[in-house]
Amino acid sequence: MVTKLQADEISSIIKERIENFELSVDINETGKIVTYADGVAQVYGLNNVMAGEMVEFEDGTQGLVLNLEESSVGVVILGSGVELREGMSVKRLNKLLRVPVGDAMLGRVVNAIGEPIDGKGPIETTETRFVEEKAPGIMNRKSVHEPMATGIKAIDALVPIGRGQREVTVISVPAFFYLGFWFLYQLMMGFVSLLGVPSTVAQVVRRLEEHGAMEYTIVVVASAAEAAALQFLAPYTGVTMGEYFRDSGRHGLIVYDDLSLILRRPPGREAYPGDVFYLHSRLLERAAKVCDEDGAGSLTALPIIETLAGDVSAYIPTNVISITDGQIFLETDLFNSGIRPAINVGLSVSRVGGAAQIKATKQVAGTLRLDLAQFRELQAFAQFASDLDEVSRKQLERGQRMVEVLKQPPFSPLPAEKQALIIFAGNEGYLDDMDASNVVRFEAELYPFIEASYPAIFESIRSALKIDDETNALMKKAIEEFKATFVAE
User: Fold this and answer.
1) Which of 128, 343, 386, 487 has the smallest CB count inside 10 Å?
2) Digit-coded pLDDT (tens) for 98-130
3) What angle do CA 200, 202, 208 make, to 5 degrees?
4) 98 catalytic, yes or no?
5) CA separation (Å) from 174 to 152, 213, 307, 414?
6) 191: closest CA among 129, 253, 119?
7) 3-state SS, one letter per residue, for 296-352
8) What is the pLDDT of residues 57-96, one digit of tens each?
9) How far apart are CA 224 and CA 56, in angstroms?
10) Which of 206, 351, 398, 441 is catalytic?
11) What is the pTM assigned to this prediction?
């Protein structure tokens, strides 16, 4: 039996087929290089390209679109770019830049796009992330309240760092390398190196390996010999890898040893690009302590800014300081005078403060910053005064001994209970009648004595994270007993 279709049925079928018809044609939007110099190509013809999109040149070199202008786009080259010439074609890839992330990255040295450069073979990881990610919003963040113990007395007591904090270090290079990598202590770590000296990077990696820190560290390197675009991308690549650990409920730390800029954008103050503040802020805002619903992980940022002649008021230092939650200022003059770590107490500050300290540290270091600041002023005044009153003299002597207390050899982190003990001894006046040159030896011999004779002191502070009345009395008794034998020697 043959079914006859009515004309209206045939018409509806044809309309339906037309409506559902899909023409699958692969169209690649292409453009041409207008000019190319210094690792940046101006490309004409990519009218629909997006900022941050990947493009590919006809020789296979890839680039990243960063500038969108009226008649052309600025593309930074991700590679050497030695074969690029004016007139070469460029096509859109319709994708944004992604880099590999994951636990397999730990212990490796990679370049700015996540490729291994340590000669240890390929990295077996399947997960990638966009280099440009939005920073966590207000509702996804939690206030900084967990201490990130550095093991450095001068930092933990005076300018504490909390998990999820952004603390800029305004620094001179010699002071930084003396400071060492105490802050790598028990953290997932990313170190972004833009120093441009391969031997220095090798020294950093060797030091990390010697102290067992490399196994939980990723080093991202963009040296001066590489393309300018890779130097620009390196900090963003590093923070992307760090966010993986933060978002998996762990705690990470990222250290930027320099922040570089490229692109021919209109100059602003001191010839820096007008959007330099945005470039820095969108990078540093990605460090955060996230809320419990998102895993309660954290990523702490420690950008390092080198000053010229110690000028902390220069554009880049003030720019980054205004974004971060505090700064640690390391001064060359203090370093050369033997005060190491060379932290300038007057210019260093943590806007998180006591929220990043355990109670025991707050108990012993509550007035330490003010005392040291007053000591610095009195010390400067005493150089011109013929004599001092008794109160000022005692304050000066106490300050000299507290400066000795805060000295610390490199790569010798101290747990919080030992820091609290020696600062307590200084605050209570047990060091006042001692020659300042003996303070370091006193400290070195005090810890073994307490561990052998009064282990309950350290155990109490470790478990309760505070100094109760019983522990306070026991600390006084122990210090007095040890001091009697120390003085006798």
Assistant:
1) 386
2) 999 999 999 999 988 899 999 899 999 989 999
3) 105
4) no
5) 17, 21, 12, 22
6) 253
7) CCEEEEEEEEECCCCCCCCHHHHHHHHHCCEEEEECHHHHHCCCCCCECCCCCEECC
8) 999 999 999 888 888 999 988 887 888 999 999 999 999 9
9) 24
10) 351
11) 0.83
